[in-house]
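Q: Hi! First time asking for a complex rather than a single chain. Here are the components, and I think there are three in total. Is that enough to go on?
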Amino acid sequence: MHTLGEIATFIDAELHGDSSLKISSLAQCGDAGKGQLTYIASSKYKKDLLKSAASAVILSKDLLADCPTNALVVEDVYLAFAKISHYFKIKSALGSVHPSAVIETSAIGKNATIGANVVIGKDCKIGADVIIGANVTILQGCEVGNNCIIAAGVVIGSEGFGNALDKDKHWHSIAHLGNVVIGADVNIGANTVIDRGTLTDTQIASGVHLDNLVHIAHNVVIGADTAIAAGVTVGGSAILGKRCQVGGGAVIASHIHLADDTIITGSSTVDKHLCAGHYTGFTSISGHSDWKRNQMWLIKLDKIAHYLNIKLKHLKGR
Amino acid sequence: MHTLGEIATFIDAELHGDSSLKISSLAQCGDAGKGQLTYIASSKYKKDLLKSAASAVILSKDLLADCPTNALVVEDVYLAFAKISHYFKIKSALGSVHPSAVIETSAIGKNATIGANVVIGKDCKIGADVIIGANVTILQGCEVGNNCIIAAGVVIGSEGFGNALDKDKHWHSIAHLGNVVIGADVNIGANTVIDRGTLTDTQIASGVHLDNLVHIAHNVVIGADTAIAAGVTVGGSAILGKRCQVGGGAVIASHIHLADDTIITGSSTVDKHLCAGHYTGFTSISGHSDWKRNQMWLIKLDKIAHYLNIKLKHLKGR
Amino acid sequence: MHTLGEIATFIDAELHGDSSLKISSLAQCGDAGKGQLTYIASSKYKKDLLKSAASAVILSKDLLADCPTNALVVEDVYLAFAKISHYFKIKSALGSVHPSAVIETSAIGKNATIGANVVIGKDCKIGADVIIGANVTILQGCEVGNNCIIAAGVVIGSEGFGNALDKDKHWHSIAHLGNVVIGADVNIGANTVIDRGTLTDTQIASGVHLDNLVHIAHNVVIGADTAIAAGVTVGGSAILGKRCQVGGGAVIASHIHLADDTIITGSSTVDKHLCAGHYTGFTSISGHSDWKRNQMWLIKLDKIAHYLNIKLKHLKGR
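A: Yes, that's all I need. Here is the structure of the assembled complex.
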């Protein structure tokens, strides 16, 4: 149990109300009751605030007058909520290596937590305060920076999918001689896979957040503070800049470059290099029979243009 | 070995033929031989039926006259086949916890089967008759109802991908304080991941079937008897109704609501709320050079409409 | 350390220069320095060749005159590079079964390497010289041919996603009685899943290469030397021919047939049977607001055709 005063200090909030109030847990505004702290991230939810039964609310200055209970005023409500959420998390035993983990001669940093059935190969470097979930595999020579959190089932350092065809059309895999080098403060979601580089290293810079079931191919370079949502496939040698955001289920083709601050809507296919900006590429959903009728014409657009005698040079406008 | 009589009783079929016949195994109609049982799910396959060498056939009443051998007449052939298939499955040792499993102080139900190298965190509740495959990870506080089957490599209760940006564009992850609560009779496919909720629980209702490599994000609620095929990405806080069917490789954006009985064709992107019905959204495949020519115009549709002076209000028809 | 002479022999190259030169490692042309071997796969990179500081270069005959250092002339540079890369790979202990692996009564071939925390069910057959990474699960009765390499976290032999609906709209899973049969020289990427067949076997022919996070459903048949990149979803009973290439993130619908030598661009949805050729089907990425404007018309193409009085029979041209 934390007092409201402690919480205010932790999130650097201006406290309006009873600093000795004991807060038992966090809850959504509509669900929150006695002893609970909630947050209002936007004035859209003002109505919820007015009738909230929470004992305290994190909010911005402009909503203070409408707050029926104790208030913690901050500049960025969502960020404050993110920070305080960790206060209420029951942590499993940290700083220990589970006896079932199989670790070859690797350097494990101070206070690192290695979960059950984790397998770490030779010559890896695992930073301080790293948390590695159960059933993770980290292969030979890979590096994980300080404060990283690696969720269950992740594989780091698998062989890249580089193959050469011989005359008989048989594939010869390339041995990937690079490693995976991961900076500090990186989060990696469950069952995500990061391949090692061919001759250089696959690089995940500090502050990167990867969601579940993401594929990062060989030689990929991801800039600092980039976030990639679940189910994204990043092809070999793609280079993503800093502070990019890639939505769930997107596919980034091999060798593509994304500039710093590029935003890709989920489910899009990135088939060209992109400058900073917000990009999208997928087919919006519609009723199945409508879709079928529209697809019939979509695969004939070039013929339609020909029939209507439309030339690219004709097309101006927006 | 089961007799045809026993099988008829099990699937509630009307037996036409020798009830003492011994059935050794199941087979496709075209492959089946002596001692084997097959099924004909549709009159389309009548030709196969006529020349089948199977010793017995599950079929519907209308095909009985064409059956050259012993027949089991049922109302729903495919369902009867599904039921009888389990009769012929060699089950590994059930009702036991593999000694290599790592289980913290969790409640494991009667007759539950826990596979090798499974890791179960603190305070989980695993129901009766649950079967958990090898290398599964279930994190602290999650609940799995009776009769669930969880395939190898699944992760349940991983942290959600909720992150707040600070002024310096660094991400701060939110600690996810909710759990995952899974009802009874749920099947979860291999290497699928289900994230825990932020403040409330991620909920998978009874009778849900999830295929392999599915991502279920934080706070998602999936209604009873919904089926989701492989490789689907379901974004955070999405709510899927009862009896929905989502095809393989589809992407459901965050915060989307699907009504009960919504069907999504595989590979579609669901970018809006949907009422009951059948919906689709992807680009049909075509020859690469045709695709290229059509895409050239697709990304100019708005300009074409402008050039042709087409207004939305002009468009009627079907 | 290998001498250039040894390397030339191994890749069957014509050596121009000092056969006793010691090569310490491989590097990209631009990065390579003293003691390093590089390669030039195309005359596009001639400029890099001219200023390379590498001690030796693998190249084709036409670039020999431009080579400033020792040269290894081969017919297929990329293939030669693929072969020699394995020379420089530090192999972990091969030919051993890790003591943490859980293996039921299965036949393990000569010189097979089984990684930590691998789980292999009853009656499996694992070929000679197979390498199985950590945390892999292979279920009862599955077969893996000689020389296969299976990366960490793979699941082979999980139940297929075949389900029958009853009158109350509850799903009844079908017990999958077939196995997975994998030929020789197959590579399977990390966290990929291959389901067992329903009544027959799921079949992966010799020489197939699968990347990470691929889903291969029940009853799928994949022909020899086909390569499938990461994140691909292959639906139930799909049949892929020999020497097909499927790009990352593609979706192949259930029951689809791909002829030998079919190439699918990454991210495409294969919703029809295809003859040999190169096929594509996705929406190219564009700026978000452009995409939005074009989508507005895309979902009205049929109405536009109607408004413009375009008939399918009108459309000729290319």
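A: The CA atoms of residues 158 and 195 of chain B lie 5 Å apart. Let me know if you'd like any chain examined more closely.
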